Sequence to fold (249 residues):
Amino acid sequence: MSTHPQPDIHIFPTPAALADEAARRFVALAQAAITARERFTVAFSGGSTPRALHQRLASAPLCNAIDWAKVYVYWSDERLVPPDDAESNFRMARETLLDHVPIPAANIVPVPTVGGTTEDAATAYAETMIAQFGSELPQFDLILLGMGPDGHTASLFPGQPEPTAPGDALVLAVHHAPKPPPDRVSFSYKLINAARTVLLFVAGADKAETVRQVLRGAPDRAKLPVQGVQPTHGQLSWLLDEAAARDLQ
Ligand code: 6PG
Fold:
């Protein structure tokens, strides 16, 4: 018997409507966090789905609705490639959003993907976060996540150590990722589940069966890592387009 509340699921007719809602929520969360705590801490995910969200946030009127000087940006996962590599999640966010809004460079905190091992990058990222949040368990205002057709989220992939036996680390070195590039850095469940808000943002018919298994099937985090996203005190919301939700009754 799950002790977790029923997931909060919102379904939208098209990927554009889905991105509109994600952008609306992003702005609302940013405004509320800045009002309450004078800053908004957000972790972006990678892949292709977030592009439409970024483009909306980079355009008027939404780009003018946020005090970007009080926004602090991290990544919930990153590929171990240089920051200018076509596969870099940082590069994608820079090109689709960060280069187009007045966010101070010091507020942008990419994973240090050059000059060391994957383990070095994970350790350094966790240390940076702890220092900047002033807490051994940083509590993000918002963590944005996607989901792959295999049920992975961030860079937590089926059968890998964290989904199988979650540890105490905040940031993980990931090797042999089935979705290339193989070496990555990822937030752990411990860090993800400390967030105030987690938005799972999923579009496309290719994910519909996995969405059904994740939301309606038996819990099996090792097989479907996104099932391990269960914020301890925060709010988890699924934002789906109709194609991704088509197998949900
Ligand atoms: C990554 C992503 C990954 C992504 C999913 C969905 O670095 O690859 O963070 O977890 O969110 O694979 O990717 P799409 O949005 O491209 O379907």
User: Anything to note?
Assistant: The first strand starts at residue 8 and ends at 12. The radius of gyration is 17 Å. The chain has seven helices and nine strands. The chain has a mean pLDDT of 96.
